[in-house]
Amino acid sequence: MTPESLEKWLFVPCRHNGISIELTQAENGEEALAAYRDGKAEVMFLDLTMPVMDGYQVLEQLQKEQLNTFVVVVSADIQPKAQERVKKLGAIAFIKKPVKTSDIENVLHEYGIV
Amino acid sequence: MYCTNMALSDSADKTTLMSIQPYTEDQSDALQEVVNIAMGQAGDSLARILGNFVALSVPRIRLVTVKDVIKTVTDMVDNNAEISAIRQSFSNSLRGEAIVVFAQAGADDLADLMGYDTDLDQSAKQELLLEVGNLLVGAVINGISETLKTDLSFSAPSLMAERTPLDQVLVPEQLSWSHALLMEVNFTVENRDFKCHLLMFMTEETIDSLRGILDEFMDGI
User: Fold this and answer.
1) B38-73 burial by CB neighbour count: b if 16+ within 10 A, else e?
2) How many domains does chain B have?
3) Can you give the residue range of the structural domain that contains B88?
4) Of A34, B15, B111, B199, which one is least surrounded by beta carbons within 10 A?
């Protein structure tokens, strides 16, 4: 997931609702947690297969820290068990790669984020 | 950023590698993502046939020469214990071959995972390796083909090695290229012995043609 692709997915729904967003990219789970602790993650788009710290570990850690963010898992690991696991760990949604803009829009609408 | 550090060991290699420009950062990212998607689909197919959750590794992509392929792959496979392996070639818009390396303990665990008697004879065990290898390679080839919207076909699998040390399998005489783009992912089943590595080697001309295909893919996102 590159910032460019994420920006593209988020552009339409956010512009539509006059919301401006700031994107922070993390190379791995540790960086994602650091960004979260800095208050930079109202919504987190989280991959599962990552070096250093994977997506499951990020979700576990977020639960320990009271999970004050919407986590949307975006992954190529499409096993039903992967989806079950991340939902149990508090993710609000699981989006399969390759991503369609409508998938992102639907989740953002469902949770009233935009 | 991948594929930018090519070690050129002698002048002969330098001449043949001259035509291969490293990918741009965008192309590398796109390739990583495409491989990730295709390997994810392969992992899902494997999980279904084994009836277990399969842990996927982060895909690794490297440029290798036939001279350093043994070292690169033995590093990826962790050790040089005995393995069994199957191979399949693929062709059309991208050419190369896929090899599935089964850690021997994993190959031995396969029958049980798939619900067969564990005392299968040798030819039945070979059939299982071919079946699972074919499933993984088919899923990853189809995944790449669909994601990049490009035509790919693949051959039937053949057994490449059985209970053989890895460094005796990937010998230059066994390989049909001098350098290649290597993509690797490994699949493990939690609490079991099963582990296998899917290796895809794309040939010289494919390294070049992939550049245009990746650009088209990025334009289409």
Assistant:
1) bbbbbbbbbbeebebbbbbbbbbbbbbbbeebbebb
2) 1
3) 23-220
4) B15
Q: ω into residue A98 within 30 of 0, thus cis?
A: yes
At B41-82, the pLDDT tens digits run 999 999 999 999 999 999 999 999 988 888 899 888 876 689
Q: Does A79 touch chain B (CB under 8 A)?
A: yes
CB distance B58–A82 less than 8 Å?
no
Q: Evaluate whether residue B142 is within a structural domain.
A: yes
pLDDT in tens, A85-99: 999 999 999 999 988
Cα–Cα distance list, A73 to A14, A63, A77, B105 (Å): 19, 15, 10, 33
Decide which of 3.30.300.130, 3.40.50.620, 3.40.50.2300, 3.40.50.1820 is the CATH code for A3-108.
3.40.50.2300
Residue A49 and residue B57: Cβ atoms within 8 Å? yes
Helices A29-37 and A55-64 pack at an angle, to 10 degrees, of 30
